[in-house]
Design brief:
By secondary structure, the protein is of the alpha/beta class. It has helices spanning about 1-15, 25-45, 55, 70-80, 90-105, 115-120, 130-145, 160-165, 170-175, 190-195, 215, 230-235, 240-245, 260-275, 285-290, and strands at about 20, 45-50, 110, 120-125, 125, 155, 180-185, 200-205, 255-260, 275-280.
């Protein structure tokens, strides 16, 4: 089954406009993954770049024999992200449907690179479906295999934002603009100003992810509760999500950096719909401030 699934996945990837999913291993792939984004920044073309990891996959449709795990996986990943289950019932159902629309509207989509499917998800010649992360990754790959996602988009690695950091490619993005906006648990104003000579237009501060609250707490802005206390984390949905969604207002073609986990995918989509260029940078914001929250 490994060989068949691998070949099918590679075949599904090849249907898309451009594929550059080996940016971790290859500088040239990392540059290739960046090319469309740079063109869109230069031409101020509204864009959404989002990345799908196993956690996001927990909110995608599961194959029939795994559907019994869907609610449990969604509950568990919310506890990892926010320390509580904040999205439930009809609200969750509607958000999952909207998530499919967000994915379809993306111009650049980060997906698991093929090697990760083999390294992390197979055991004894078959899928290790006892693991939540395997079920999440399977949901992503099977969404692509289903043919229900528009192929008029570029595919990159789900870790492309950190790959660009490791290959020192953010210089290429920021030399093309003098203004950015961002959503993050970090106050990035000083970093962006000193490192890239950028002026910040809009900034929204959100609570740090529950799983990393202790590491991030010393660096978090006091206004967002760096301690990751439950009452602060619980504000992320629906209160902060709705508030930020209502206030996102990019300048035409403005680069908008989004480090907001699952909810950040929806923010990137709104940035595009309102004329900006939403870039899902994820934990790269941590790396900029010297916090290695991902390996």
């Amino acid at each position: 089954e490994i060989e068949t699934y691998y070949k099918d996945y590679l075949g599904a990837l090849e249907q898309f406009r451009q594929v550059s999913v080996l940016s971790r291993e290859s500088y040239f792939e990392a540059v290739s993954a960046l090319e469309e984004l740079l063109v869109n920044i230069r031409e101020k073309t509204p864009t959404s770049l989002i990345r799908l990891g196993d956690g996001e996959g927990n909110f995608l449709p599961y194959r029939e024999e795994l559907q019994e795990f869907a609610a449990l996986d969604q509950r568990k990943i919310q506890h990892i992200w926010w320390g509580d289950e904040l999205i439930t019932g009809d609200c969750l159902s509607k958000l999952c449907l909207r998530f499919l629309q967000v994915i379809d509207n993306a111009d650049v989509l980060g997906v698991p690179p093929p090697w990760r499917l083999i390294k992390e998800n197979f055991s004894g010649g078959d899928f290790n479906t006892t693991e939540q992360y395997t079920r999440g990754n399977m949901a992503i790959t099977e969404l692509l295999l289903s043919g229900s996602v528009s192929t008029d988009k570029s595919l990159v690695s789900s870790a492309v934002s950190n790959d660009w950091y490791r290959w020192n490619l953010y210089d290429a993005i920021f030399r093309m603009t003098d203004t950015v906006s961002y959503i993050s648990c970090h106050d990035l104003d000083v970093y962006l100003s000193q490192r890239y000579d950028l002026r910040v237009n809009q900034s929204f501060l959100i609570p740090a992810e529950h799983a990393y609250r202790e590491m991030i707490s010393a660096h978090a802005h006091p206004a967002i509760g760096g301690s990751g206390e439950p009452e602060v984390l619980n504000r992320i949905f629906p209160e902060l999500f709705n508030e930020i969604s209502g206030k996102i207002s990019p300048l035409p073609g403005e680069v908008y950096l989004v480090a907001a986990g699952f909810l950040g995918k929806f923010f990137c989509d709104l940035v595009k719909r309102r004329g900006g260029i939403g870039i899902d940078i994820g934990s790269t914001a941590d790396y900029w401030l010297g916090l290695e929250t991902r390996r």
